[in-house]
Amino acid sequence: MRIAILTTENQKHEIIDNKNAGSEIDLVFMKNISEMGNFAEFDAFFLLTDTIPVATFEDLYEKPVIINSVVNTLKSTKLPFNVSRINGWPGFLKRSIWEIASNSKAMTEIVFKSLGWNILFVKDEPGFVSARVLSMIINEAYFALGENVSTINEIDLAMKLGTNYPFSPFEWQEKIGIQNIYMLLKKLSETNKRYLIAPLLEQEFKKFTSSHLE
User: Fold this and answer.
1) Nearest-CA neighbor of 92 among 18, 21, 22, 19?
2) Contact yes or no for 122/129 (Cβ under 8 A)
3) Which long-range contacts (CB under 8 A, 24 or more apart) does 80-87 make?
4) What is the pLDDT of residue 95?
5) For a surface tag, which of 23, 60, 180, 196 has the fewest beta carbons within 10 Å of its beta carbon?
6) What is the pTM of this model?
7) Any bridge partners for residue 84, and if so which?
8) Is 36:65 a contact under the CB 8 Å cutoff?
9) DSSP-derived pairing of the beta strands 65-68 and 83-86
């Protein structure tokens, strides 16, 4: 099986670190869609960057396509039946189990089994399961910090020692990116007030966007 993987450099390293496929699997990494050339040469596609032209999916027909889409669902984006979505946030491509939302489970399962990766099919909802829970934990940490309940170091230490998390809330936020956390919480809060964004997190996101506009 020959698989085209469109990734950032960080995503590429995470996938290589998590590689569990046999020699019969050929993973071809690329930085942009133009490098793929003839789509017919590949059996499956991982399109994990954020700038995939919608017209691209029409060229891939019924071959399995896996995209990085944490916030937007398959239903909301109206993508073809052969497209599945995963969480390609930093750190999540190294997990032992991949959460997948798919309308073509049989097709997708064949790809991941050939790669030797364990998968869990979940509902086609924003944030899947892990990202939704983790974003809420980070949001609560910002509530606690903004209300002067504790310091960043104390919150991080308490979560590491109390829950045995590999990363603390603010370490996860730094790793994932505050923009990713903010956009997911914003989407989730549209239908559920429990995800309302902490004022301090909102402030930090505005600082982030302002600094990247300069």
Assistant:
1) 18
2) yes
3) 82/107, 83/57, 84/108, 85/124, 87/128, 87/130, 87/131
4) 83
5) 23
6) 0.86
7) 66, 102
8) no
9) parallel
Q: Which residue has the tokens 């073809």?
A: 80
pLDDT tens per residue across span 15-41: 887 766 656 788 889 887 777 777 778
Alpha-carbon distances, residue 26 vs 32, 106, 118, 175, 187 (angstroms) = 18, 21, 19, 29, 37
Over residues 197-211, mean pLDDT: 92
Q: Which of these, 63, 58, 104, lies nearest to 81 by C-alpha position?
A: 104
Specify whether the CB–CB gap between 26 and 68 falls below 8 A. Answer: no
